Amino acid sequence: MATDVRGSSLVGKFSCPVVFVEVEDAAGRGGVGEASPSSQDGESWETVCRFLRQIEVNQLSFEDLSSTMGD
Question: Considering the domain boundaries, does residue 11 fall inside one?
Answer without folding.
Answer: no
